[in-house]
Amino acid sequence: MSLAFVDGGFAEPVFGSQHAFRALMDAFARPGSIADLSGLAVPPVPMSPAAGAFLLALADQDTPVFFETHMPDAQAWVGFHTGATVTRDAPSARFAHLSDAGDAAAWNRFARGTAEYPDRSASLLLPVAGLRGGQSLILKGPGIETTREIAPQGLPRGFADVMAANRAGFPLGFDLVLVAGGEALALPRTTRIEEV
Amino acid sequence: MTLPTYNFAYLDEQTKRMIRRAILKGIAIPGYQVPFASREMPMPYGWGTGGVQVTAAILGPDDVLKVIDQGADDTTNAVSIRAFFAKTANVATTTKTADATIIQTRHRIPEERLQAHQTLVFQVPIPEPLRFLEPRETETRVMHGLEEYGLVHVKLYEDIAQHGHIATTYAYPVKVEDRYVMDPSPIPKFDNPKLGRSPALQLFGAGREKRIYALPPFTEVASLDFEDHPFTVQRFSRPCALCNATGVYMDEVVTDDRGGRMFVCSDTDHCETRQADGHRGPGLPQLGPHAASDRESAR
């Protein structure tokens, strides 16, 4: 039996969580800005340190986590460190770790909340090849003074259409966090994304 | 052997995670009230337990905390909450708006424009702007879901019918990003224009009512009004008696039992900073050749 899931948690859980959360709060409050989550968590491959820090900071026994691709070591690691259950039922997941080679059209199976409780919705972690150097996208919306340009690499098929539909469904919707290495970039449901 | 008696910033980690998740949802849905499992705090409801829980969940060891109560750093509520976090989190505290990274506030927004690295945490008594019009939570939830805000406009219209103008002066309802009507907490409507397009993140915590909501930076916030009765803020005819400031929100201070009164800045840090910069208001002894003898005779 592999014990890879025991190592790699926050060195100091209280301050590691706080540090990761503040970086993520800033990322959600300023969509498109890049949050540095490096050096906090070391999850088993293929999970990125940023996705690991996100889940350690926010997941627990109240938040089922869905994995779009099977990654047994990382799943065991999340379970060991957070107490969160791994669910195979996408609609009941509060957090979902997406595939880096999936189809964005499949994201509509996750919880989008209800008219009375739009907060009962999922946050999706999307691993991408990089947060810089890809095709330019222009962001607008709350948290952005005028516009902000991002250029992530390796976005899945149908990304722009799915995100436009997600924005159109506001206040319902999912919130997306792109993760690459130790960095994260949040695209909450309020953000309008235009291709250049 | 000594055992720690409580966690950093008082709240346990699971509570902080739950509050942190609510904060992220609040930021993602500006103006929407996210329910959260508010805890009992070592202070009574009504003393800012919602704001305290939000502050405890975001606070880190490198933060510098400022707490104000109606603009003042030196009133009971502000002093108590500042001391609470100085003790439970050992964080640096300040009264200077510019030096703070987190500002917890009861019912004011500082006069000095906030910056991007700052977070403003509001204490909220009644987060539901429709509550006094519709007491049932199940109904107000549906009204927000359907964007059915006619009642709020009727309330403002009734003000005009009775008083000739909109008589609501604090907790003046706003509409966020043209979607959710939100209670800005009982800040004077004077502060409403500072809510919108602020560079700082604004978080709202209601402890007794168990709700958290948020305004991300640069969010569009409009105070509700009518075309023929546009929203206006309070104006003060006199400058601050201590620092001579104009265009700020004032407190009326009764100075004796013969009708004497003066108007001074509600924001004590703003007032003290201006006085330190040499601004002197009409309520202070005027400096001049006779200043020393004025002070003598005042004794």
Short description:
The complex is a heterodimer of chains A (196) and B (299). Chain A has 196 residues and is of the alpha/beta class. Chain A is built from 4 helices and 10 strands; from the N terminus they run αβαβαβββββαβββ.
Describe this structure in words.
The complex is a heterodimer of chains A (about 200) and B (about 300). Chain A is an alpha/beta fold and about 200 residues long. Chain A has helices at about 15-30, 50-60, 70-80, 160-170, and strands at about 35, 65, 85, 95, 125, 135-140, 150, 175-180, 185, 190-195. In chain A, helix 1 packs across helix 2 (about 50-60). The longest helix of chain A is centred in the first third of the chain and has 17 residues, at about 15-30. The N and C termini of chain A lie far apart (about 50 Å). Chain B is α/β, with parallel strands linked by helices and about 300 residues long. Helices cover about 30% and strands about 15% of the residues of chain B. Chain B contains 8 helices and 12 strands. In chain B, a hairpin with a 4-residue loop joins strand 8 and strand 9 (about 210-215). Chain B is globular, with a radius of gyration of 21 Å. The termini of chain B are far apart. The model of chain B is unreliable at about 290-299 (pLDDT under 50). The interface of A and B includes residues 28 and 188 of A.
